[in-house]
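Trying the structure run again after the queue cleared.
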Amino acid sequence: MKIDSNAKGVYVIAPTPFHPDGRIDDSSVDRMTDFFIQAGVDGMTVLGQLGEAPKMEHNESVGIVKRVIQRAGMPIIVGVSAPGFAAMRALTHDAMAAGAAGVMIAPPNTLRTDDSIVQYYRQASEAIGADVPFVLQDYPLTFSVQMAPGVIRRIVA
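Done. Tokens:
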């Protein structure tokens, strides 16, 4: 089920647990997912700002997505931000095929003007496919990109 304008409630931002040697800690992923379910969240985001996604290979990211989707039984939004649109498109395709409700895209830290921000999200939307719902990830303290409400309105339009 894809998210749409009727999405509401609490979507928790899930970190990605790792073993000390850098392997993904699957049992901790399961415990974390169970905890969020028991806490009553309405959905989850994975591979976002806390997901350490840039440290993982594509197949590791897809493995986490599949694991959480199969266990959670709620809408899962997948962070697909990447340095290039090809990697973003590939992870989006695999996440949506696995049953993700949508994807989340952060702006690269190189964007400085309102027009460049809007253009980036236009290109990202085209890259992932117009039928894929996306969440705009806005965290200026990390991304160094300032998006005024008017810019967000332009992106949505």
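The chain has a mean pLDDT of 93. Worth checking whether this holds up in the mutant runs.
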